[in-house]
Write a structure and sequence with these properties.
The protein contains one helix and no strands.
Length: about 50
Amino acid sequence: MKQITVTNQSESFVGEEQILVWMEFLLTFLFRGFLLLAIPVFILAINLL
């Protein structure tokens, strides 16, 4: 019985870890996209000034 509860706990833990990894991936993806958009806009702004 103990082994079954341990495996269930580890599975839920893995699920939580996966969610954290996905959140981190989405944040980094959005951040990179933001940088890719911001850099050309920044360059254009400097050229206009």
